[in-house]
Amino acid sequence: MDSNRPQRKSNRAEAGGGGLFRKQGSMKKFRGCFWLAAVAFAAGAQGAFALGPLPFIEDFATNRANWLDGASANATWLPTGGVGDGAYISATGTVVASGFGTIVFRGNAGADASGDAFVGNWISGGVSNFSAFVRHNAPSELGIFARLDAGGGRAASSIGFTVAPNAWTSLSIPILDSVGSFQSYGQANPPSGAVPSPAGFNAIFGSMQNIQFVVAPNIGLANQTFTFDVDQISVVPEPGAWGLVAAGLAALGFQRLCRFRSKRNQP
């Protein structure tokens, strides 16, 4: 009987040692999986979430989201009739014959428009495109452009878009330092505001504050007041940021798989 005790002890030690080895090996695998997931997700987060989750689309689903009209009064919220018959906001504006134009909508940081989803550094946030749908009820075409404003006169006025009456029309603006996207940078590049200008572009998009929609001057319709609508205002990340987000999500899924396998390998 005494001679058997060491043998049983040895067997127990071998079994225990084998179990411990399997557990430690599983833990190492799990830790490796965890760090791989963490690194991949952090890389995705850095590129995509600087402004908040991207893409962001303001669809005014339940209210006006603190957007204002051109006179800085509350825009009118309507529950149906927007893009896809969803909600949208509306305002009136009077067309001018010359000058800058008529601001018809304001998404101001000071008013917490869209929960400040458009406020921040668009460059480090990876924003590659700004878009919206607009509509008006004038009897003929009007020019409408977006003014992306960093305050202090530093603002990027987009190229103009021709918008036909009574039809939702998409405005899509690549966020690039190019005359294909913008016609002026205002005081970000004095005295002329000329485009392109890397310094002007960085001064504006490195500190975005306000979004405005502007009706261009029109001599034929000057001094007449019309109704303007806007919906589906959005910013989207550059394609590389999409890839990082996908990689991060895939890595998190892989982490869960590793955790599941480590549990299966435990004695």
Characteristics of this structure?
alpha+beta, Jelly Rolls, 267 residues, 6-stranded antiparallel sheet, disordered N terminus, 7-stranded antiparallel sheet, 2 domains
Task: Assign the CATH superfamily of the largest domain.
Answer: Galactose-binding domain-like
Sum up the overall morphology in one term.
globular
Distance between the termini: 29 Å
Poorly predicted regions: 3-50, 241-249
Radius of gyration equals: 28 Å
Return the CATH topology of the largest domain.
Jelly Rolls
Helical content class: 25-40%
Q: Provide the CATH top-level class of the largest domain.
A: Mainly Beta
Major beta sheet summary: 7 strands, antiparallel
Individual helix count: 3
CATH architecture of the largest domain: Sandwich
Which structural category do the helix and sheet elements fall into?
alpha+beta
Percent of residues in beta strands? 25-35%
Give average pLDDT, whole number.
82
Q: What is the domain total for the residues?
A: 2
Strands, count: 13
Order of helices and strands: HEEEEEEEEEEEHEEH
Note down, in words, how this protein is organized.
The structure is a single chain. This protein has helices at residues 4-48, 198-205, 239-265; strands at residues 56-58, 68-69, 76-78, 88-94, 102-107, 127-136, 142-149, 154-158, 161-163, 169-174, 182-186, 210-215, 225-237. The two termini are 29 Å apart. The protein folds into 2 domains: 4-48 and 244-265; 56-238, Jelly Rolls (Sandwich), CATH 2.60.120. By secondary structure, it is α+β, with helices and mostly antiparallel strands. Helix 1 (4-48) runs antiparallel to helix 3. The chain has 3 helices and 13 strands.
